[in-house]
Specification:
- The protein is mainly alpha-helical.
- The chain has 2 domains: 85 residues, DNA polymerase, domain 1; 178 residues, hpI Integrase, Chain A.
- 55% of the residues lie in helices and 4% in strands.
- Strands 1-2-3 form a 3-stranded antiparallel beta sheet, with no helix packed on it.
- The model has no long low-confidence stretch (mean pLDDT 85).
Length: 308
């Protein structure tokens, strides 16, 4: 992490004060999203609890190794531990550059490797069954538009929550979203999503909306911006109602979008762009899913693959 800061004395500053300065740095200078800031601070609070709030300038590599071992024995996986170490490392880099801390105790520390799990996806039939909502009520029209858009464009939950009406261009059939790292991307949405959204916009006109929320695409009956939790709840509701026997969550529709698109197009770069992945290695997980799909077809169809 590159930090260009003027050195400041840390004498007489306690842990809370140092962390508050770090919070300001990642919020205003690094411009991380409120959600990312919250996650960083949660990981740092875990570090403090593990060490009984000992002064940050006294932490050693041995402390960090012991902390990681404790968290791992409590069931935390490699991916979560890697994120945790990254959060701690960022804090200590900041303290070294701004407060002349002598060392970063996280250097050289690596999380235990986790078994790589492929993301869960729905079949095409299951996905269509889930999103094809036949309900003309306020909630039915709104939720139909949400599910169609999730599957049509592979959006992240945070991207959908923050969509404005002006982000949609029905003429070109595209939507502009702000993804991770405040990166903007333009992605298409299909005719089924467009139709569902237009129906939702008609009924949306009938609710009283505060000025602060008047551009937000998806709202509650009281005109308030939907929370991530509310959308997660509605997806689970429709999974039960539509008879889809899976643990439905927003990212499952994103995984399904990517997997189904890759199966049809075989264009990994295009899927990477649509998902907004910075690194293609993140997208390559879906090639494994596609291989599993092809293997099943092979096992069922090839004369020499059939088991006796």
């Amino acid at each position: 992490m590159k930090v260009n800061l003027i050195w400041t004395h840390s004498k007489n500053m306690n842990n809370s004060e140092l962390i508050e300065e770090y919070k300001k740095f990642i919020s205003f200078e690094k411009r991380l999203s409120p959600s990312s800031v919250k996650n960083y601070l949660r990981d740092i609070n875990t570090l403090l609890k593990l060490n009984e709030n000992a002064a940050l300038d006294g932490y050693s590599i041995e402390n960090i190794r012991k902390n990681i071992a404790t968290l791992h024995s409590n069931g935390l996986g490699g991916k979560s531990l890697s994120r945790m170490i990254s959060s701690w490392r960022g804090l200590f880099n900041f303290l070294i550059h701004k407060y002349r801390f002598k060392k970063n105790p996280t250097l050289g520390i690596k999380a235990p490797k986790s078994k790589k799990l492929l993301p869960q996806t729905l079949s095409v039939d299951q996905t269509i069954k889930l999103v094809d909502i036949k309900d003309s009520s306020f909630l039915g029209l709104r939720d139909h538009a949400i599910l169609e858009l999730f599957y049509s464009s592979g959006l992240r939950l945070s991207e959908l929550v923050n969509l404005n009406i002006g982000d949609l261009d029905f003429d070109s059939g595209t939507i502009t979203v702000i993804g991770k790292g405040q990166k903007e991307r333009v992605i298409p949405f299909g005719s089924f999503a467009a139709k569902a959204i237009k129906k939702w916009l008609e009924i949306r006109k009938k609710i009283s909306v505060p000025k602060s929320e008047d551009q937000i695409l998806f709202l509650s009956k009281t005109g308030k911006k939907l929370t991530s939790r509310a959308i997660q709840y509605r997806l689970k509701y429709w999974a039960i109602k539509q008879g889809v026997p899976e643990n439905i969550h927003p990212h499952l529709l994103r995984h399904s979008f990517a997997s189904h698109l890759l199966q049809s197009s075989q264009d990994l770069r295009a899927v990477q762009e649509l998902l907004g992945h910075s690194n293609i290695s993140t997208t390559q997980i879906y090639t494994h899913l596609d291989f599993q799909h092809l293997s099943k077809i092979y096992d069922k169809a090839h004369p020499r693959a059939k088991k006796k």
